[in-house]
Design brief:
about 500 residues, alpha/beta, eleven-stranded mixed beta sheet, about 40% helix, globular, disordered N terminus, binds glutamine
Length: about 500
C-alpha cells in the first residue's frame, strides 16, 4: 500500500484540482501534459497501458488549451490529460480495438465523445489497451500484449478496459474513457482501485465506438474521484442525432447534487449478489461499506433480484450473437487487414483467420450458432425474454430503494494466466456487473478497501437516467471512506 501522495505530484491530481491550478495560472496545460508524458515514458514500458502515444500531438493540444485559458474561456476539461480506450475512433492516430485486424486502421472521423472532448480543448495522451474488440475480463486478449496492474504487476488490471483503468491508477492520465458491455468499466476500475462509471444505456452517444454488442455497449469514464466522473459525464453525455439509440435528453447537471448528504436515501442490499467462490475479504469489505452508509444516515433495505443468476448465461447468448453480426464487417474489404486469396472466400478466411484472436473467434462461433435457423428461438429469443425478467426485477426493486449496493466483482485482481484456460472462470469475473447492462441501468465502482495490496471495488446501481442520485450516493460514500486517496507505489 502506498504512502500519502506528496502534494507536488501533478500526475496524482484530480481533474477538479487541475482545473483550479490551470485557471489560476499556477500551472500550464503544457506543464501538466509534459508531466504525464514523462510519467508514461518512465513507467509504461513495464505497465503497457497504451497501444499508441503521440507526444507531439498531445503538446499541440496543450498549447491550444493554454491559449484558451489565457483568453479566460476554459471549459471544465480544457487542458486535462485524458487517455482513450482504443475502441474509440480518433482522427490523427490509429484505432486498433486491440486487434491485429485493425493494426494500421485510421478513422476518417472522430467518435462523438472524442469530438466533444476536443471541443473543450482537452488533451489526449494516448490510446489505451483493451481486450480484442473489448472481449475479456483481464486485457490478456489484446494483440498488443498484456497490461499490468499498477498495484501488483504480477496481476491483471481487469478488462476489457485494462489499459484506460491502469493508466488513471498509475498516473499516466488524469481521466480516461472506456466502454462497458458486461462490466468492462466497473470491473477494471475495481481491480485498479479507481472510480469507473457506466451510464444508462442511451445516455452517451455510441457513434464511433467500435461495436461489440450494440444493445449493451456504453461509453463511460475512469476517474480518481466521483466528482471527476460527474465532470466527465457532463462533457460527453447528451443527445446525438447521429446515434439512433442516443436518448433525446440534454446532458444532466450532476455536480450540484454532490453534497455528501445521505439522509433520506434508501440503499438496497440484494442477497443474490453473492456467489460460490466469493473472496471473503471482498464480502467483508462490502459489509463494512454498508455499515458506513448506514452510519452516514442512509436507510438500508433488503431487496430481491431473483433472476440475477440467469444474467451471465443470458449475456453469453446475446453478446456473442450481436458480436457475430457486428464483426462481419471485418472482411478484408472495408477496413484494416486484407490478406489476398485465390477466391473471395479464401480472402475472407485468410483475413479473418489471421486477423482475429482465439476469444473473438470463440464469440463469433457461439453467436453464429445462437442466431442460426432452428436455434434462434431456442437461444436468442429466449435470452431476450429472460433479459426482460432481469429488467423487471430492477424496476420492482427500485420502487423501494434509490440505489442498490453490491460488490463489483467476486474477487480482487488475479495473476496472469490464472483463468486463461478456463473461459467460464474468466466470465465469472463479471457476474455482478452484467445484470446492469442487461437492464440498461447505470452503475459505478468506487474503491472500498484492500485485500493485501490489491484494491476492492464497491458497486452502486441506480435507476435508468437517474445518474444524479447514483453519483450523489457514491460521492457521499467516498467522502466518508476516502480509499480513493491512496495510490500505488509504482
Ligand atoms: N468481460 C465481459 C466479456 O468478455 C464484458 C466485456 C465488456 O464489458 N466489454 O464479454
Amino acid at each position: 500500500m502506498s504512502l500519502p501522495t506528496p502534494s507536488g505530484d501533478l500526475h496524482w491530481l484530480t481533474a477538479a484540482e487541475a482545473r483550479r491550478l490551470l485557471d489560476s495560472k499556477a500551472i500550464s496545460a503544457v506543464e501538466l501534459t509534459t508531466a504525464h508524458l514523462d510519467r508514461i515514458a518512465a513507467i509504461d514500458q513495464s505497465l503497457n497501458c497504451h497501444i499508441s502515444t503521440f507526444p507531439e500531438l498531445s503538446l499541440e493540444q496543450a498549447r491550444s488549451a493554454d491559449e484558451r485559458i489565457r483568453r479566460g474561456e476554459s471549459a471544465s476539461l480544457t487542458g486535462i490529460p485524458i487517455s482513450l480506450k482504443d475502441v474509440l475512433v480518433t482522427t490523427g492516430t490509429k484505432t486498433t480495438a486491440g486487434s491485429k485486424i485493425l493494426r494500421d486502421y485510421e478513422s476518417p472521423y472522430d467518435a462523438t465523445v472524442v469530438r466533444r472532448l476536443r471541443d473543450q480543448n482537452a488533451v489526449f495522451v494516448g490510446k489505451s489497451n483493451t481486450d480484442e474488440f473489448a472481449m475479456g475480463s483481464s486485457t490478456e486478449n489484446s494483440a498488443y500484449g498484456v497490461t499490468r496492474n499498477p498495484w501488483d504487476t504480477t496481476c491483471v488490471p481487469g478488462g476489457s478496459s485494462g489499459g484506460p483503468a491502469a493508466a488513471v491508477a498509475a498516473g499516466e492520465a488524469i481521466l480516461s474513457l472506456g466502454s462497458d458491455t458486461g462490466g468492462s468499466i466497473r470491473q477494471p476500475a475495481g481491480f485498479c482501485g479507481i472510480v469507473g462509471f457506466k451510464p444508462t444505456y442511451g445516455r452517451v452517444s455510441r457513434l464511433g465506438l467500435i461495436a461489440f454488442s450494440s444493445s449493451l455497449d456504453q461509453i463511460g469514464p475512469f476517474t480518481r474521484s466521483v466528482e471527476d466522473a460527474a465532470l466527465m459525464m457532463e462533457a460527453i453525455a447528451g443527445h446525438d442525432p447521429a446515434d439512433s439509440t442516443s436518448a433525446p435528453m440534454p446532458a444532466p447537471d450532476l455536480r450540484s447534487g454532490l453534497t455528501g448528504d445521505l439522509s433520506g436515501i434508501r440503499v438496497g442490499v440484494a442477497e443474490e449478489y453473492s456467489v460460490d467462490g466469493m473472496d471473503p475479504e471482498v464480502a467483508a469489505a462490502v459489509d463494512r461499506a454498508v455499515d458506513s452508509l448506514r452510519q452516514s444516515g442512509a436507510q438500508i433495505k433488503r431487496v430481491t433480484l431473483p433472476h440475477t443468476r440467469y444474467a451471465l448465461p443470458t449475456y453469453y447468448i446475446i453478446a456473442p450473437a450481436e458480436a457475430s453480426a457486428n464483426l462481419a464487417r471485418f472482411d478484408g474489404v472495408k477496413y484494416g487487414l486484407s490478406i489476398q486469396g485465390s477466391s473471395l472466400r479464401e480472402m475472407y478466411e485468410q483475413t479473418r483467420g489471421q486477423g482475429f484472436g482465439a476469444e473473438v473467434k470463440r464469440r463469433i462461433m457461439l453467436g453464429t450458432y445462437a442466431l442460426s435457423s432452428g436455434y434462434y428461438d431456442a437461444y436468442y429469443v429466449k435470452a431476450q425474454k429472460v433479459r426482460t425478467l432481469i429488467k423487471q426485477d430492477f424496476d420492482l426493486a427500485f420502487q423501494d430503494v434509490d440505489v442498490i449496493v453490491a460488490p463489483t466483482s467476486p474477487t480482487v485482481a488475479f495473476p496472469f494466466g490464472a483463468r486463461m484456460d478456463d473461459p467460464y472462470q474468466m466470465y465469472l469475473a463479471d457476474v455482478f456487473t452484467i445484470p446492469a447492462n442487461m437492464a440498461g441501468i447505470p452503475g459505478i465502482s468506487v474503491p472500498c478497501g484492500f485485500s493485501g495490496t490489491l484494491p476492492i471495488g464497491l458497486q452502486f446501481l441506480g435507476k435508468a437516467f437517474d445518474e444524479a442520485t447514483l453519483l450523489a450516493v457514491a460521492h457521499a460514500y467516498e467522502q466518508s471512506q476516502p480509499w480513493w486517496k491512496q495510490h500505488p507505489a509504482i
